[in-house]
Amino acid sequence: MSNPQPEESTWAAFFADKARRCQDPALRAFYAAGVPRPQTPLCDVPLVALDFETTGLDVHRHAIVSIGLVPFDLRRIRPSAGRYWVVRPQRPLDEASIRFHRITHAEVARAPDLDEVLDEILAELSGCLVVVHYRGIERPFLDTAVQDRRGERCLFPLIDTMSIEAREVRQGGWNRLKGMLRGAPTSIRLSDTRARYGLPAYSAHHAKLDALATAELLQAQIARHYSPDTPVGELWE
Questions:
Q1: What's the CA angle centered on 19, arms 120 and 53, to 5 degrees?
Q2: pTM of this structure
Q3: Are strands 158-160 and 64-72 parallel, antiparallel or unpaired?
Q4: C-beta separation of 51 from 138 below 8 A
């Protein structure tokens, strides 16, 4: 489970190899859908914003409790085509977790195990480039969950809006444009980052709403700092 993800230049080869070797039909179909070429303009790539609520941040001790996704591209976001699942973690919820994501014991008690909805999730992600806010959650948690249930890896390239914002903050763009730091660190949390682009505030820690918020943020970041013709390989990780 500690194996690193493929380098950017090898994602296509990795997907092709997995499409040949995977035993699980849903994973095989996911990999067979492929990935865009790195030089593909971002405006030509189907995107899907993905967000997980988890019981904590340690992929080895904590688990996914809800999943939200919203398909979009640089021109249009399609929230009505988005999906939302509550799933039952393999360990009981603690009170801190419930306060954070507001999913209760009763909800998870009647929720399916992630394995029961995994085929649907993989089908929704197939052929799309995943967009997240903080790459340390969705990819490693999904990979670990799939290994536990299907015995195979689930890795994919993604665009991380937090990484994009961290880069802009390091380069000083926000300081020069707005003088926002005034000696204090600039927050790159989702809500704080959205506020800098004039995006509305949403209720946090609901997986589908956070996916929608991430999709809107990427559109704003590309409009301000990049171009629709930016090659996708410049942004994915």
A1: 35
A2: 0.91
A3: unpaired
A4: yes
